[in-house]
Amino acid sequence: MASGNFSMFAGDTMTITVNVKDADGDAVSIASSTINWAAHEKISETAALTKSTSSGISITDGAGGVFTIALAAEDTSFMAGDYYHETQVTFSDSTDMTVLTGTMTVTPVAI
Fold first, then answer.
1. Neighbouring residues of 62: CB distance < 8 A, sequence distance ≥ 6
2. pTM of the entire structure?
3. Each residue of 42-86: pLDDT tens digit?
4. Is 49 helix (H, G, I), strand (E, B) or coil?
5. Which of 65, 47, 69, 66 is nearest to 57 (CA)?
6. Could you say which of 6, 46, 53, 62 is the most buried, measured as most Cβ atoms within 10 Å of its Cβ?
7. 87, 6 in Cβ contact below 8 A?
8. What domains sit in the chain, N to C, each tagged with a CATH number?
9. How far apart are CA 103 and CA 101, in angstroms?
10. Residues 80, 89: Cα–Cα separation, whole Å
């Protein structure tokens, strides 16, 4: 699992690239996998923002374990502060792997 803290301004667009690797640092195939990402203001609350392979997540190199999460301007325009985020991959054999966790810091803007 990788740590993925990042910062952005509310209303900006951002693409997050994730490389899935095993404990030895080798790429893990994510071909035919389902990927879900969520950002929570508090971990015990409903997600403020979600993305999935059906909306906003693209597998760019399945065999190489690479995917991207696309955040559009409207996704974060209402956000401000720190959000816990995590990404889980569900493989074709139905096993799950949490591949990324961290803090997303969103700075509000006046424009």
1. 29, 30, 31, 32, 33
2. 0.93
3. 988 899 999 999 999 999 999 999 999 999 999 999 999 999 999
4. strand
5. 69
6. 53
7. no
8. 2-107 (2.60.40.10)
9. 7
10. 27
